[in-house]
Amino acid sequence: MMNKAGTPGDLAVDIQRYRERSEQMLDRYLRLEDPGTPRLLQAMRYSVLGGGKRLRPILVYCAGSALGASLQALDAPAAAVELIHAYSLVHDDLPAMDDDDLRRGRPTCHKAFDEGTAVLVGDALQALAFGLIAEDDSPGVSAEARLLGLRVLAQGIGTAGMAGGQAIDLEAVGRPLTLPELEKMHRSKTGALIRASVLLGAVTAQVGPGAEFQALSRFGAELGLAFQIQDDILDVTGDVATIGKQVGADAARDKPTYPSLLGLEQARARAAQARDNAIASLAPLGARAASLEALAHFVVDRSH
Fold it and tell me: Which long-range contacts does 127-132 make (Cβ < 8 Å, 24+ apart)?
Protein backbone atom coordinates (compact mmCIF):
# COMPACT_ATOMS: atom_id res chain seq x y z
CA MET A 1 0.00 0.00 0.00
CA MET A 2 2.90 2.36 0.77
CA ASN A 3 6.25 2.75 -0.94
CA LYS A 4 9.53 3.04 0.94
CA ALA A 5 8.81 6.67 1.71
CA GLY A 6 5.40 5.77 3.09
CA THR A 7 3.55 8.54 1.28
CA PRO A 8 -0.15 9.09 2.05
CA GLY A 9 -0.85 9.30 -1.67
CA ASP A 10 0.01 5.65 -2.13
CA LEU A 11 -2.41 4.71 0.64
CA ALA A 12 -5.20 6.69 -1.02
CA VAL A 13 -4.53 5.01 -4.38
CA ASP A 14 -4.71 1.51 -2.93
CA ILE A 15 -7.77 2.27 -0.82
CA GLN A 16 -9.53 3.48 -3.94
CA ARG A 17 -8.38 0.42 -5.90
CA TYR A 18 -9.64 -1.98 -3.26
CA ARG A 19 -12.88 -0.04 -2.87
CA GLU A 20 -13.58 -0.16 -6.61
CA ARG A 21 -12.77 -3.86 -6.75
CA SER A 22 -15.12 -4.60 -3.85
CA GLU A 23 -17.89 -2.62 -5.56
CA GLN A 24 -17.45 -4.70 -8.72
CA MET A 25 -17.51 -7.96 -6.77
CA LEU A 26 -20.58 -6.97 -4.75
CA ASP A 27 -22.44 -6.05 -7.93
CA ARG A 28 -21.47 -9.41 -9.46
CA TYR A 29 -22.45 -11.49 -6.43
CA LEU A 30 -25.77 -9.68 -6.15
CA ARG A 31 -26.88 -10.82 -9.61
CA LEU A 32 -28.83 -13.76 -8.21
CA GLU A 33 -30.37 -16.44 -10.40
CA ASP A 34 -33.13 -17.08 -7.85
CA PRO A 35 -33.70 -13.88 -5.85
CA GLY A 36 -36.96 -14.99 -4.25
CA THR A 37 -38.76 -11.98 -5.67
CA PRO A 38 -37.58 -9.03 -7.77
CA ARG A 39 -38.49 -6.69 -4.90
CA LEU A 40 -36.26 -8.57 -2.46
CA LEU A 41 -33.33 -8.44 -4.85
CA GLN A 42 -33.95 -4.75 -5.48
CA ALA A 43 -33.89 -4.09 -1.75
CA MET A 44 -30.71 -6.15 -1.29
CA ARG A 45 -28.92 -4.23 -4.03
CA TYR A 46 -30.25 -0.93 -2.68
CA SER A 47 -28.86 -1.70 0.76
CA VAL A 48 -25.45 -2.94 -0.35
CA LEU A 49 -24.62 -0.85 -3.42
CA GLY A 50 -25.69 2.54 -2.09
CA GLY A 51 -22.25 3.76 -1.12
CA GLY A 52 -20.16 3.33 2.00
CA LYS A 53 -16.53 3.39 3.06
CA ARG A 54 -15.98 -0.34 2.29
CA LEU A 55 -13.46 -0.42 5.14
CA ARG A 56 -14.05 -4.09 5.91
CA PRO A 57 -13.33 -5.42 2.39
CA ILE A 58 -10.40 -3.02 2.19
CA LEU A 59 -9.03 -4.65 5.34
CA VAL A 60 -9.48 -8.11 3.81
CA TYR A 61 -7.59 -7.08 0.68
CA CYS A 62 -4.94 -5.19 2.62
CA ALA A 63 -4.19 -7.95 5.15
CA GLY A 64 -4.36 -10.74 2.59
CA SER A 65 -2.19 -8.96 0.04
CA ALA A 66 0.43 -8.17 2.67
CA LEU A 67 0.64 -11.88 3.44
CA GLY A 68 0.83 -13.05 -0.17
CA ALA A 69 -2.76 -13.86 -1.17
CA SER A 70 -3.97 -12.96 -4.65
CA LEU A 71 -6.73 -10.43 -5.12
CA GLN A 72 -8.80 -13.08 -6.86
CA ALA A 73 -8.65 -15.32 -3.80
CA LEU A 74 -9.61 -12.39 -1.57
CA ASP A 75 -12.67 -11.36 -3.60
CA ALA A 76 -15.18 -13.73 -1.98
CA PRO A 77 -14.21 -13.08 1.67
CA ALA A 78 -13.99 -9.34 1.02
CA ALA A 79 -17.50 -9.29 -0.44
CA ALA A 80 -18.79 -11.60 2.30
CA VAL A 81 -17.74 -9.36 5.15
CA GLU A 82 -19.31 -6.32 3.48
CA LEU A 83 -22.56 -8.24 2.94
CA ILE A 84 -22.57 -9.01 6.67
CA HIS A 85 -21.92 -5.37 7.47
CA ALA A 86 -24.77 -4.27 5.19
CA TYR A 87 -27.13 -6.78 6.80
CA SER A 88 -26.23 -5.43 10.24
CA LEU A 89 -26.98 -1.86 9.15
CA VAL A 90 -30.34 -2.81 7.67
CA HIS A 91 -31.37 -4.50 10.91
CA ASP A 92 -29.86 -1.81 13.16
CA ASP A 93 -31.91 0.84 11.35
CA LEU A 94 -35.24 -0.92 12.01
CA PRO A 95 -37.73 0.70 14.41
CA ALA A 96 -37.19 -2.18 16.86
CA MET A 97 -33.48 -1.28 17.01
CA ASP A 98 -32.11 2.22 16.37
CA ASP A 99 -35.10 3.47 14.33
CA ASP A 100 -33.06 5.47 11.81
CA ASP A 101 -34.50 7.10 8.71
CA LEU A 102 -31.26 7.95 6.90
CA ARG A 103 -28.29 5.81 5.92
CA ARG A 104 -25.47 6.83 3.55
CA GLY A 105 -27.43 9.93 2.59
CA ARG A 106 -30.54 7.96 1.51
CA PRO A 107 -33.66 6.59 3.19
CA THR A 108 -32.94 3.44 5.16
CA CYS A 109 -34.08 0.10 3.72
CA HIS A 110 -37.27 -0.14 5.77
CA LYS A 111 -38.19 3.41 4.73
CA ALA A 112 -37.46 2.86 1.03
CA PHE A 113 -39.26 -0.50 1.04
CA ASP A 114 -40.96 -1.78 4.22
CA GLU A 115 -40.03 -3.37 7.56
CA GLY A 116 -40.76 -6.94 6.56
CA THR A 117 -38.64 -6.65 3.43
CA ALA A 118 -35.82 -5.11 5.47
CA VAL A 119 -35.80 -8.10 7.83
CA LEU A 120 -35.62 -10.48 4.86
CA VAL A 121 -32.86 -8.41 3.25
CA GLY A 122 -30.70 -8.88 6.32
CA ASP A 123 -31.44 -12.59 6.47
CA ALA A 124 -30.65 -13.09 2.77
CA LEU A 125 -27.43 -11.05 2.87
CA GLN A 126 -26.13 -13.07 5.81
CA ALA A 127 -26.87 -16.35 4.03
CA LEU A 128 -25.24 -15.12 0.83
CA ALA A 129 -22.10 -14.08 2.74
CA PHE A 130 -21.53 -17.52 4.22
CA GLY A 131 -22.30 -19.14 0.88
CA LEU A 132 -19.64 -17.08 -0.89
CA ILE A 133 -16.90 -18.32 1.41
CA ALA A 134 -18.14 -21.91 1.52
CA GLU A 135 -18.44 -22.20 -2.26
CA ASP A 136 -15.32 -20.28 -3.28
CA ASP A 137 -12.89 -22.40 -5.27
CA SER A 138 -10.07 -19.92 -5.84
CA PRO A 139 -6.71 -21.58 -6.49
CA GLY A 140 -4.42 -21.73 -3.46
CA VAL A 141 -7.19 -21.58 -0.84
CA SER A 142 -7.54 -24.89 0.96
CA ALA A 143 -10.76 -26.37 2.30
CA GLU A 144 -9.28 -25.97 5.79
CA ALA A 145 -8.74 -22.26 5.16
CA ARG A 146 -12.33 -21.82 3.98
CA LEU A 147 -13.61 -23.65 7.06
CA LEU A 148 -11.51 -21.45 9.34
CA GLY A 149 -12.82 -18.39 7.49
CA LEU A 150 -16.40 -19.48 8.13
CA ARG A 151 -15.58 -19.96 11.81
CA VAL A 152 -13.94 -16.53 12.04
CA LEU A 153 -16.95 -14.87 10.44
CA ALA A 154 -19.44 -16.72 12.64
CA GLN A 155 -17.56 -15.71 15.78
CA GLY A 156 -17.46 -12.10 14.63
CA ILE A 157 -21.23 -11.78 14.24
CA GLY A 158 -22.58 -14.04 17.00
CA THR A 159 -23.31 -13.48 20.68
CA ALA A 160 -19.62 -12.94 21.41
CA GLY A 161 -19.46 -10.42 18.57
CA MET A 162 -21.82 -8.17 16.65
CA ALA A 163 -25.17 -9.54 17.89
CA GLY A 164 -24.01 -9.60 21.49
CA GLY A 165 -22.74 -6.03 21.20
CA GLN A 166 -26.05 -4.85 19.77
CA ALA A 167 -27.85 -6.53 22.68
CA ILE A 168 -25.64 -4.61 25.12
CA ASP A 169 -26.39 -1.43 23.17
CA LEU A 170 -30.16 -1.95 23.40
CA GLU A 171 -30.01 -2.61 27.13
CA ALA A 172 -27.78 0.42 27.73
CA VAL A 173 -30.14 3.08 26.38
CA GLY A 174 -31.11 5.52 29.10
CA ARG A 175 -28.78 4.16 31.76
CA PRO A 176 -25.15 4.95 32.56
CA LEU A 177 -22.37 2.60 31.52
CA THR A 178 -18.93 2.40 33.00
CA LEU A 179 -16.01 2.86 30.65
CA PRO A 180 -15.16 -0.89 30.70
CA GLU A 181 -18.81 -1.69 29.84
CA LEU A 182 -18.78 0.78 26.95
CA GLU A 183 -15.52 -0.66 25.68
CA LYS A 184 -16.94 -4.18 25.76
CA MET A 185 -19.97 -3.01 23.77
CA HIS A 186 -17.82 -1.33 21.13
CA ARG A 187 -15.39 -4.25 20.87
CA SER A 188 -18.32 -6.60 20.29
CA LYS A 189 -20.74 -4.57 18.18
CA THR A 190 -18.20 -3.03 15.78
CA GLY A 191 -14.75 -4.29 16.63
CA ALA A 192 -15.48 -8.00 16.23
CA LEU A 193 -16.40 -7.70 12.54
CA ILE A 194 -13.38 -5.50 11.82
CA ARG A 195 -11.20 -8.10 13.53
CA ALA A 196 -12.89 -10.79 11.42
CA SER A 197 -12.12 -8.78 8.27
CA VAL A 198 -8.41 -8.74 9.04
CA LEU A 199 -8.39 -12.43 9.90
CA LEU A 200 -10.29 -13.38 6.75
CA GLY A 201 -7.48 -11.82 4.74
CA ALA A 202 -4.92 -13.74 6.78
CA VAL A 203 -6.80 -17.04 6.52
CA THR A 204 -7.07 -16.69 2.75
CA ALA A 205 -3.29 -16.25 2.67
CA GLN A 206 -3.07 -19.62 4.45
CA VAL A 207 -2.09 -18.11 7.81
CA GLY A 208 -3.47 -20.40 10.49
CA PRO A 209 -3.46 -20.20 14.29
CA GLY A 210 -0.07 -19.07 15.55
CA ALA A 211 1.93 -15.95 16.37
CA GLU A 212 1.04 -14.03 13.21
CA PHE A 213 -2.63 -14.97 13.46
CA GLN A 214 -2.74 -13.75 17.08
CA ALA A 215 -0.93 -10.52 16.16
CA LEU A 216 -3.47 -9.79 13.45
CA SER A 217 -6.31 -10.69 15.81
CA ARG A 218 -5.06 -8.10 18.32
CA PHE A 219 -4.57 -5.57 15.53
CA GLY A 220 -8.13 -6.04 14.29
CA ALA A 221 -9.61 -5.82 17.78
CA GLU A 222 -7.80 -2.58 18.63
CA LEU A 223 -8.48 -1.08 15.21
CA GLY A 224 -12.17 -1.89 15.62
CA LEU A 225 -12.26 -0.06 18.94
CA ALA A 226 -10.46 2.95 17.44
CA PHE A 227 -12.90 2.99 14.53
CA GLN A 228 -15.97 3.00 16.79
CA ILE A 229 -14.60 5.69 19.10
CA GLN A 230 -14.00 7.84 16.04
CA ASP A 231 -17.59 7.15 14.95
CA ASP A 232 -18.77 8.35 18.38
CA ILE A 233 -16.73 11.52 17.89
CA LEU A 234 -18.10 12.13 14.40
CA ASP A 235 -21.65 11.78 15.74
CA VAL A 236 -20.87 14.93 17.74
CA THR A 237 -18.62 16.87 15.37
CA GLY A 238 -19.74 15.73 11.89
CA ASP A 239 -22.54 16.88 9.59
CA VAL A 240 -25.14 14.98 7.60
CA ALA A 241 -23.62 15.86 4.23
CA THR A 242 -20.24 14.43 5.25
CA ILE A 243 -21.13 11.30 7.22
CA GLY A 244 -24.37 10.43 5.39
CA LYS A 245 -26.57 9.94 8.45
CA GLN A 246 -28.18 12.01 11.16
CA VAL A 247 -25.70 13.54 13.59
CA GLY A 248 -26.42 13.74 17.28
CA ALA A 249 -28.52 10.60 17.08
CA ASP A 250 -26.69 8.93 19.97
CA ALA A 251 -27.28 11.88 22.27
CA ALA A 252 -30.93 12.12 21.21
CA ARG A 253 -31.45 8.50 22.24
CA ASP A 254 -29.43 8.95 25.44
CA LYS A 255 -26.99 6.30 24.25
CA PRO A 256 -23.63 6.04 26.04
CA THR A 257 -20.61 7.04 23.94
CA TYR A 258 -16.98 7.87 24.55
CA PRO A 259 -17.55 11.64 24.19
CA SER A 260 -20.48 11.49 26.61
CA LEU A 261 -18.38 9.65 29.19
CA LEU A 262 -14.98 11.27 28.66
CA GLY A 263 -15.52 14.45 26.68
CA LEU A 264 -14.25 15.02 23.14
CA GLU A 265 -10.57 15.53 23.89
CA GLN A 266 -10.20 12.42 26.03
CA ALA A 267 -12.24 10.45 23.50
CA ARG A 268 -9.80 11.52 20.78
CA ALA A 269 -6.90 10.49 22.99
CA ARG A 270 -8.49 7.09 23.60
CA ALA A 271 -8.98 6.56 19.85
CA ALA A 272 -5.31 7.40 19.28
CA GLN A 273 -4.29 5.01 22.05
CA ALA A 274 -6.30 2.16 20.49
CA ARG A 275 -4.71 2.96 17.11
CA ASP A 276 -1.23 2.85 18.65
CA ASN A 277 -2.04 -0.44 20.38
CA ALA A 278 -3.15 -1.85 17.03
CA ILE A 279 0.06 -0.78 15.32
CA ALA A 280 2.23 -2.14 18.14
CA SER A 281 0.59 -5.54 17.81
CA LEU A 282 1.88 -5.84 14.23
CA ALA A 283 5.52 -6.20 15.27
CA PRO A 284 5.71 -9.95 14.43
CA LEU A 285 4.89 -9.15 10.79
CA GLY A 286 7.82 -6.78 10.30
CA ALA A 287 7.88 -4.80 7.06
CA ARG A 288 4.82 -6.63 5.71
CA ALA A 289 2.69 -4.64 8.18
CA ALA A 290 3.39 -1.23 6.59
CA SER A 291 0.08 -1.08 4.74
CA LEU A 292 -1.95 -2.08 7.80
CA GLU A 293 -0.14 0.49 9.91
CA ALA A 294 -0.97 3.21 7.40
CA LEU A 295 -4.59 2.09 7.33
CA ALA A 296 -4.77 2.34 11.13
CA HIS A 297 -3.79 6.00 10.90
CA PHE A 298 -6.38 6.53 8.18
CA VAL A 299 -9.16 5.06 10.34
CA VAL A 300 -8.57 7.51 13.18
CA ASP A 301 -7.86 10.55 10.99
CA ARG A 302 -10.98 10.13 8.83
CA SER A 303 -13.79 12.71 8.75
CA HIS A 304 -16.65 10.34 7.79
Answer: 128/29, 128/30, 128/32, 128/80, 128/83, 129/79, 129/80, 129/81, 129/83, 129/84, 129/87, 129/153, 130/80, 130/154, 132/29, 132/76, 132/77, 132/79, 132/80, 132/83
